[in-house]
Structures are given as C-alpha cells and as structure tokens.
Design goal:
With about 280 residues, this protein is mostly helical. It has ten helices and no strands. It has helices spanning about 5-15, 20-30, 40-55, 60-70, 70-110, 120-125, 130-135, 140-155, 165-185, 190-275. Helix 4 (about 60-70) crosses helix 5. The protein is elongated, with a radius of gyration of 40 Å. The relative contact order is 0.05.
Length: about 280
C-alpha cells in the first residue's frame, strides 16, 4: 500500500521543522489587520510588516515563499478573504434585519400627519422599552428615525421643519453681536438701528422656534392620550367579553337545571300512570 522510504529520506523527514509554510503564513496573518476589503498587495505588505517586527532576520521565510510558492501564498490569501467576506455579509444581513424591525416599530407608532415633527426625545420615550430599539446603536436609532420622519412627511405632502440647533443659534447670535459692534464703530446711529433690527429678527426667530416646539409637544401629548384611550377601550372590551361569557355560562347551567327538573316531573307522572300490582 505504501511506497518504501529510504533511510536517508526517513531521517530528512524527521529533521524537517514542524512548522509548514501554511502555518508560518497563519502565524504572521494572526497579528495583522485583515478585512473583506484587504487586497492581495495589502496582505503581502502586512505580512512583511509583521515579519519584520516579530521574526528574527535569519529566520524570515516570507520572501522565499513568495518567490518559490506564490501560488500557495495567494491560495491562503483567498481562503482568508473568503472567510472575511462571509462574516461581513452575515453581519450585513443581521444589521438589515435589525433595521427592518426598527422601521416596523416606527410604522406602528407614527403614521398620521400630526405625528410629523415629533422630537427624538419624545420618540425615545415611546420606543425605548422595545427590543427593536435596544438592538441598535444610538446613532443608528436617531438616523433611521429622522429618515423615517422625512419619508412620512413626503408621503403626507408636508414639509418637515428642521429641528433647532444650539450651535446654529449661538453662531447667529455671535454674528449679530459682531456685526452690530462693527456697525456702531463705523456708522453710529445706523449701526444701532441695524442692531435693533437684527435683534427683532432674532426674537421673531426664537418665538417661531418656541411655537414649533410647543406644537411638537402638543402633538406628542395627543398621541400619548390616544394610546391611553385605546388601552382603556381595549380593557373595557375585554371586560364586556368576560361578562358576556359569564352570562352565557350561567344561562347554559340554568337550562340544564330546568331540563333536569322537567325530566324528574315526567318520571313522577309516568309512575302514577303505571298500574299498581
């Protein structure tokens, strides 16, 4: 079954180091960053970097392997790359499923025109008790929420008003103060008029933002009130259903008792009619 091995061949096999070329490549690759996007050239460069850092110069084999057995080096790269691509695709499928669950959750909560403009703070209060919310990172939750609200606004034919940003208001106030100071230095009374005008515009803007915030809070309050009313209606319906079932059982029991009493009376009549011996 096996070809005979000469004495010299046997001892040469024993004296061969245990680590094969593939194992040497595996040891180097274990200490380098490798992803589904890593090219063969980046792979070789990474191996060279790790070898230079981890292996003594007289024990380095990578250059000889690439020169004498590049096919095997490339095959091992393709093996690693295939595994990383499979892992990446599985992660993407899992992420897509989590995002779809979160999107369905948003559809369950927000579907009317008065839901448009609800703040993330109010939405977070509604959503945080659900597992679809917990399965995502906070940045993804907010991004998908705002994307959904934009989509809902387009569907309803409404314009989604952008949320107020603290840094934008601060920069506007800074520009206003800087402009008024420069105008006062150069134009005197005209600068003061310009400052007053800008202050009036700023006040109007702040009033408008406060009005939008009040409107969003009112919308959120109405939504929570609607949810509470639905829960109360559901509880009342459940109570009516239980009472109805209880009444039906009671009537059924009464009918059985009545039939039983009628049967007993009929038996007594039959006994009277039966001739006595």
């Amino acid at each position: 079954l096996f070809a005979p091995v000469s004495r010299s061949r046997f001892f040469s096999l024993l004296s061969r180091p245990r680590s094969s070329p593939n194992q040497y490549l595996r040891d180097l690759a274990a200490d380098m960053a490798f992803t589904h996007e890593t090219t063969f050239e980046e792979y070789l460069k990474g191996l060279e970097t790790v070898e230079a850092e981890k292996v003594d110069e007289e024990k380095r084999k990578l250059a000889g392997l690439v020169k004498s057995a590049e096919v095997h080096v490339r095959l091992y790269y393709e093996e690693l790359h295939t595994k990383e691509v499979a892992i990446y695709e599985d992660e993407q499928r899992s992420r897509k499923r989590r995002e779809e669950r979160y999107h369905h959750l948003l559809e369950d909560y927000y579907y009317r025109s008065d839901h448009i403009g609800i703040s993330w703070k109010d939405a977070e209060y509604d959503l945080r008790r659900h597992s679809a919310y917990a399965d995502l990172k906070d940045a993804d939750r907010q991004r998908l929420f705002h994307e959904y609200m934009e989509s809902l606004a387009r569907k309803m034919g409404k314009k989604l008003k952008p949320a107020a940003r603290d840094d934008g208001v601060a920069s506007e106030a800074s520009d206003t103060n800087g402009g008024s100071a420069g105008a006062a230095a150069e134009e005197g009374e005209e600068g003061e008029v310009g400052t007053a005008t800008k202050s009036g515009e700023k006040s109007t803007l702040e009033d408008g933002e406060e009005g939008e915030e009040d409107e969003r809070e009112e919308s959120s309050r109405r939504k929570r009130q609607d949810d509470d009313e639905r829960d109360e209606r559901g509880e009342r319906d459940e109570d009516r259903k239980r009472r109805k079932e209880k009444k039906a059982k009671k009537e059924k029991k009464s009918r059985r008792r009545s039939r039983s009493e009628e049967g007993e009376e009929q038996d007594e009549i039959d006994d009277r009619k039966r001739p006595r011996m």
